[in-house]
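Fold these two proteins, one after the other.
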Amino acid sequence: MGENKRLMLSGDWYLPDDEELEAESRRRADLCAAYNGTGGDGMPGAEEGDRILRELLGSVGEGVRIRPPFQCDFGTYISIGARTFINFGAVFLDPGPITVGADVQIGPNVQLLTPSHEFDTERRRAGWERALPVTIGDNVWLGGGVIVCPGVTIGENTVVGAGSVVTKDLPAGVLAVGSPARVIRTLERGVVPSIQESE
């Protein structure tokens, strides 16, 4: 393993312009294109799509469904738990680990982002970046267009409203909305809010 890859995986600052990382990215590009071309998720070619997905990603649980198009940086550093559903247009940038639990519902155009860039103008111009893990707990629901920023953990059973930007960890069992996302209520098991309560 080269030094840049070691730094990347340890969450330290690294330079992504590296032959080893570029080779992994080309592998990812080919597999993503092949997966997206199958139609995936119950369409003709879904069996082939499932095989490609298991080659692309680090770990895929039973019954995972990802509707194409799906894009990632490497794929290798993504783990998805059983029965999770990911809707159209997901972007998972994974120079850092992305862990998605079981029974997660991910709406269309959701972004899980592990990389960040330097605030220092010269280091940013030179291309330095680092990646911090993103972790999504079991039975989380991310509404359409949610963005989860580097280093964020979302606790199990939490719901994040559509269009929210999650910049800090969220605890288990809450509803969070907004940009930046903030907790607006605790979710109780077996209690279904009325339409008025959810607005």
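Now the second one:
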Amino acid sequence: MTALIHPREALFGSEAPRAALPVVDHYCGVEARMRKSLALQSELGPVFDITLDAEDGAPVGGEAEHALLIADLATSTANRFGRVGARVHPFGHGAFDADVDTLIAKAGASLAYLMIPKPDSAEEVDRAVTAIDAACEHHARPKLPLQVLIETHGALRDVFRIAAHPRIESLSFGLMDFVSAHGGAIPKAAMELPGQFEHPLVVRAKLEIAAAAHAFGKTPSHCVVTEFRDAAALAGAARRGAREFGYLRMWSIHPDQIRPIVDAFAPAPDEIAEATELLLAAQSRHWAPISFRDRLHDRASYRYFWTVLERAQRTGCTLPAEARSAFFPVSIG
């Protein structure tokens, strides 16, 4: 009997897999909130990342001490799942080199990624990556996955070139700085709901970032929602970001936002059931085209349904037993 082939092998072959990132990127920079976020991640599991913020979180004049705090937290037992990253100061800022050196030297083996904010061009991203990689080599640390915040005119202009960089795994949209960069030409309402889904320049930026990320197999991460007390509005924004704009991940800036975003990005139970039934049928036919529920399917649609199951697993959904045994025999985390 011919052995059954796993979807990752049958449907993608030698194609480099997209980094399987959690659907929430939770930002925090104040020590009490950083510790609270780590405790919440320990409780909920690795369904969200934590980005410890060395940029906006650091008090002026206290950048070095703040970077040391982040390194201590990243290497502590509170980082149970290895899904803690850090945002450094922008390349060219006086604290960039010190941030990178401290974090790589003291926590390079514990951090999941570094976030590079506010680049003005693809060339600046390349210089930042070169500096980070040099620090990794100097301290004999593995090269860290890198992410980029698209929040300037120059970065948006070069977004496809930035997405093409082989060291970048994810692009995030920095809504607030992007709006501010227009010098008042975009109204404040575009930083709020529903304005961030309506203003043409903001919508254009969201679509360009998502398109560039998908073109090069990178993960697009949706911007913040500042209305953190309105769970319904937040969930609606997360659903729109995922379903209308193609984002696979979203920022959280308050612990109360994490669960609504996870739920919004999770597939519905009927989607999980359909994907399971179809993929098991396709696997039994060795991934040849099949008829399923009166529709023809082949590897193109199989790839889509496989992403449904992968997203279900990343968001902590309950998978049917047959899907777990066939496709996810070893639990992650």
